[in-house]
Structure formats: structure tokens, C-alpha cells
From TrEMBL:
Protein name: Holliday junction branch migration complex subunit RuvA
Top-level taxon of origin: Bacteria
Alphabetized UniProt keyword annotations: ATP-binding, Cytoplasm, DNA damage, DNA recombination, DNA repair, DNA-binding, Helicase, Hydrolase, Nucleotide-binding
Pfam families to which the protein is assigned, alphabetical: HHH_5, RuvA_C, RuvA_N
Matching NCBIfam families: ruvA (TIGR00084)
Gene Ontology MF: a single term: four-way junction DNA binding
Subunit structure: Homotetramer. Forms an RuvA(8)-RuvB(12)-Holliday junction (HJ) complex. HJ DNA is sandwiched between 2 RuvA tetramers; dsDNA enters through RuvA and exits via RuvB. An RuvB hexamer assembles on each DNA strand where it exits the tetramer. Each RuvB hexamer is contacted by two RuvA subunits (via domain III) on 2 adjacent RuvB subunits; this complex drives branch migration. In the full resolvosome a probable DNA-RuvA(4)-RuvB(12)-RuvC(2) complex forms which resolves the HJ.
Entry comment, domain topic: Has three domains with a flexible linker between the domains II and III and assumes an 'L' shape. Domain III is highly mobile and contacts RuvB.
GO biological process: DNA recombination; DNA repair
GO cellular component, one term: Holliday junction helicase complex
InterPro entries: DNA_helicase_Holl-junc_RuvA_I, Hlx-hairpin-Hlx_DNA-bd_motif, NA-bd_OB-fold, RuvA, RuvA_2-like, RuvA_C, RuvA_C_sf
Family membership: Belongs to the RuvA family.
The organism of origin for this protein: Humibacillus xanthopallidus
Length: 200
């Protein structure tokens, strides 16, 4: 895995740049902000992620390790590839992505080209707990205890209905995962369990 590159900027495009490393020009896909932050003929260092496909090896470059972390983490969601992950970072900073996912801000997420409402909802439910605490908060919102009545049931039902299932289908799945709630499972874990039940 090529984790980082350090070299001379040979060419700059809108969302690509070529970095000269040891006599080799490496094409790196990046955000417009990162591309405009480097200068032709000047040294630059980028955190990189190598995406391996059957017919290609593609390098993606980032100004910070945090951008790289967000890029790689959002791709763990089914249907999110490197191009969409890069588009998220072109529209939002890593902290803005964390806030949008942690607070369920679908409006912010759907500002990214290629992400619709259902895609945004899936991102929220699968990544809410995966990118760490929100900026300025002591803990993530998922740390709210579930022993306060049936709050979890409302939250999971709303998410399932938003993803296209009927209220009845959602309630059936909720009944099946209720024992896990009694054991103290988080809302996101309960949502994943309900999705598995509905997928059977």
C-alpha cells in the first residue's frame, strides 16, 4: 500500500495532479481544494490511498491524514466508491462530514453529487459511530443510554421507513431485535440488526 507520496509537483489539473517521485510521475486524484493548494515545480507531500481494481491501480491524495481516514471509512458503505468518497470531501471538510453523519443531517449529505436521500440515510446509519466524536463534543450521540423507555424503537423505525420499508415491516423487525435493546445494544447496532432481519 502506498500510504504517502513526497515529491515535486509536475502538473496540476482541476482534481488531479502529477507528483514527480524518484524520476516517476505519479498521477494522483484529489479534491479541487488540495489541487489548488500546491504549486507547480514546488515540493508537496500527500497522504495517499491506493485503490486496486482488476484493470487499474488508482492513487487518491489528501492534504491531511484525517481526509484520508474519512475517504477510506465512507467506502465501507455498500455503493460508495472512491469517486463518491472524494466528492464528499470536495464538498465538505472531514469535520463537516462527521457532523452531518453524527447528527443525521441529510440535507448536508445530499449536497454531494451522487448522494440521494436514501443513500444519505444509509450513510448515517452505517457510519454514525465509525468516525469518532463530533468536533467540540465529549462523546458521540450514540453514547445515549437505551434504557430510557422506547426511544430506540422510534429512532430505528423512522430510519427504516425512510429507507423504504412500511411501518408494519419496520415494527415486525423491531419486535425481533428488541431483546438486543434489553441487552444494551446501541441504536446503530439495532438498526443494522433490523436491516439484516428485513433482508432475510
Amino acid at each position: 500500500m502506498i500510504a504517502s507520496l513526497s515529491g515535486t509537483v509536475l502538473k496540476v489539473g482541476l482534481d488531479t495532479l502529477v507528483l514527480g517521485v524518484g524520476g516517476v510521475g505519479m498521477l494522483v486524484h484529489t479534491t479541487p481544494a488540495t489541487a489548488t493548494s500546491v504549486r507547480l515545480g514546488q515540493p508537496a507531500e500527500l497522504a495517499t490511498s491506493l485503490v486496486v481494481r482488476e484493470d487499474s491501480l488508482t492513487l487518491y491524495g489528501f492534504a491531511t491524514d484525517d481526509e484520508k481516514l474519512v475517504f477510506e471509512t465512507v467506502q465501507t458503505v455498500s455503493g460508495v466508491g472512491p469517486r463518491l468518497a472524494l466528492a464528499m470531501l470536495a464538498v465538505h471538510s472531514p469535520d463537516a462530514v462527521r457532523v452531518a453523519l453524527g447528527t443525521g443531517d441529510l440535507v448536508a449529505l445530499t449536497k454531494v453529487p451522487g448522494i440521494g436521500r436514501k443513500g444519505a440515510e444509509r450513510l448515517v446509519l452505517e457510519l454514525k459511530d465509525k468516525l469518532g466524536a463530533l468536533p467540540g463534543s465529549a462523546a458521540t450521540s450514540a453514547a445515549v443510554p437505551l434504557d430510557t423507555g422506547e426511544v430506540w424503537r422510534e429512532q430505528v423505525r423512522e430510519a427504516l421507513v425512510g429507507l423504504g420499508w412500511t411501518v408494519r415491516q419496520a415494527d415486525d423487525a423491531l419486535d425481533r431485535v428488541a431483546p438486543r435493546a434489553a441487552e444494551g445494544a446501541s441504536v446503530s447496532a439495532l438498526l443494522r440488526a433490523a436491516l439484516q432481519e428485513l433482508g432475510r
